[in-house]
Design goal:
The protein is α/β, with parallel strands linked by helices. It contains 11 helices and 7 strands. 46% of the residues are buried.
Length: 287
């Protein structure tokens, strides 16, 4: 019960990773507010995860589009009014957006993907940060991914927005220093969710032969278990991770369970951050 007595808001919780995070947070003792655009799916998830809740443990659901500022202002106001205090925010909602060469994708769809993936994170933080600062406590977990740390040809809106999420995470962590608010991003790994199905449906002619074949292999092998990302979210939402902030952490590849023992060393370095590589980093001496 690592989250007993805490309250969390989880976006994009009607399916996939968001649903799994919400379910585990409830099992760990948290009260939760889940949101997504599809009201019917959301209410079905609410009913399902309530089965593992304890007496007096609240689970609320509210349909909301994270790309719409008014929806998020209403969501945050509801959560604060209902619980009195919100301790954890998980910005999970995200989409791939249009796939294909930059010159061929629809501009409106490209902007929409950025609005969901990046603006949605901004809006949620904007309307909750003052509350967390007032309480001198908070945990914010932003979902990023491989698109943030390397080029992702033919899925440019996703890659650009997820890189933006990481830099926003690092920036917000700086703004929140001194308020005991930890802000981190996670890369959950290559998951077999609806996003993978979208890649396979698009085909190699749209997403590129290499990426498509990688997706086929992932589908066959099963991908990274959802549980790894869920466990990392629980860790970052709990007191175990206090003082670890401004990082992007891989659920699969990074030894995050050992980070509390390395907290001072980690926070005194640029490990798990975005940075520019200069010639000296590769043993080169350029004038």
């Amino acid at each position: 019960m690592k989250l007993k007595g805490r309250v969390a808001i989880i976006t994009g919780a009607s399916q996939g990773l968001g649903q799994a995070i919400a379910a585990e947070f409830v099992r760990q003792g948290a009260g939760v507010v889940i949101c997504a655009r599809d009201k019917d799916k959301l209410l079905a998830v609410k009913a399902e995860i309530e089965r593992s809740s304890a007496i007096g443990q609240k689970v609320h659901a509210m349909a909301a589009d994270v790309s719409k500022e008014a929806d998020i202002e209403k969501l945050m106001g509801f959560a604060i009014a209902e619980f009195g205090q919100v301790d954890i925010l998980v910005n999970n909602a995200g989409i791939y957006g249009p796939m294909g060469p930059v010159e061929q994708v629809d501009g409106g769809d490209w902007v929409k993907a950025v609005a969901v993936n990046l603006f949605g994170v901004f809006y949620c933080c904007k309307y909750l940060i003052a509350h967390m600062k007032k309480n001198n406590h908070g945990k914010i977990i932003n979902l990023s991914g491989g698109g943030a740390t390397g080029p992702l040809a033919f899925i440019s809106a996703y890659a650009a927005s997820k890189a933006g999420v990481v830099r926003f995470t690092e920036t917000l962590a700086e703004e929140c220093s001194g308020y005991k608010i930890d802000v981190n991003a996670i890369a959950p790994g290559a998951l077999n969710t609806r996003l993978l199905d979208e890649v396979l449906s698009a085909g190699p002619q749209t997403v590129g032969k290499d990426f498509y074949e990688k997706a086929l292999k992932q589908k066959k092998d099963g991908g990274v278990p959802l549980e790894l990302g869920v466990e990392l979210c629980v860790f970052l939402a709990s007191g175990e991770s206090d003082g670890i902030t401004g990082r992007i952490i891989s659920a699969k590849w990074d030894p995050w369970k050992s980070l509390p023992a390395r907290r001072k060393e980690l926070m005194g370095s640029d490990v798990y951050t975005l940075r520019r590589i200069i010639p000296q980093d590769r043993g080169q001496k350029w004038d």
